[in-house]
Amino acid sequence: MASEETSVFFDTHCHLQDVRFQPDLAVRLLQAREAGITNFVCCGTQESDWDAVLEVAMAHPAVLPMLGLHPWFAYQARPGWLERLAERLQNPCIGLGECGLDFAIEEPQRELQESAFRGHLRLACDLNRPVSIHCRHAWERLMAIAREEGLPKAGAVIHAFSGSAEMAREAQTLGFYLAFGCSLTNPNNHRAAKALKVVAEDRLLFETDAPDMPPYGSTQGTLNDPANLRLAVEAASRVRGIDPEALASVAYRNSCRVFRGMLPTA
Ligand SMILES: [Zn+2]
User: Fold this and answer.
1) 210 C-alpha vs ligand 1 centroid, how far in Å?
2) In the chain, what are the domain boundaries?
3) Which of 27, 111, 15 is nearest to 66 (CA)?
């Protein structure tokens, strides 16, 4: 396919600091670069991995670091965490995430998740940094908090979007970008396909969430890889009925807009 030679891609959410990547991260990044992926937004999940995120970014200029507390680790929001995060964000090339709400799990408690999420959003708005948001089974609260706190002008991304088409519309009205990954490669994922179809061209992003969420049909235990981003874009192009190269370039432009403040050349 002609697009394979010419398209460029931007992975807007992954976790390259994950220990499972450390034996061969440089090789994986090289393969991804050869597959046309030019940038990788690497998201922290808890205070203990922030240093590792920054180290990966220092070693690989194509990696753009974000720091945050994933809702699964919201119980780590101990006194001073937000000040420590703000301190790190004195570097203007660092974004916020992964943060958000996950009500599919019982712990950490919702109140704790919501207060940590509000902290991220306030900081992102104050500093005008992009923010990468995780949301499962918490759509109404996510939208309510976004209305109350506002979103950073730089851009607020709901990563691995798993909501309904109706929620996709509402999220865009509030100003969110929506990012889709390799879950689109599952032909039975009709919910994601329906949501993808209502996303405006200028709100659409792609990601891998590597090493998690590998493409459909991967054998159990297979790590997802940033090079698989093109599979997500190709699957999305089939759903939207447009040329994969055209879709890749639309999403690439959107990615550059959201993350431009974090790019080394900015
Ligand atoms: Zn993630």
Assistant:
1) 8
2) 7-262
3) 15
Ligand 1 center from residue 19 Cα (angstroms): 14
pLDDT tens-digit profile, the chain (266 residues): 444 457 899 999 999 999 999 999 999 999 999 999 999 999 999 999 999 999 999 999 999 999 999 999 999 888 999 999 999 999 999 999 999 999 999 999 999 999 999 999 999 999 999 999 999 999 999 999 999 999 999 999 999 999 999 999 999 999 999 999 999 999 999 999 999 999 999 999 999 999 999 999 999 999 999 999 999 999 999 999 999 999 999 999 999 999 999 997 65
Say how many Å lie between the CA of residue 2 and the centre of ligand 1: 31
Sheet holding 204-206, edge to edge: 9-14, 37-43, 63-67, 95-102, 131-136, 156-158, 177-180, 204-206
Q: Is 136 exposed, middle or buried (0-12, 13-18, 19+ CB in 10 A)?
A: middle
Ligand 1 geometric centre to CA of 209 (Å): 5
Contact 118, 247 (CB under 8 A): no
CATH class of 7-262: alpha beta
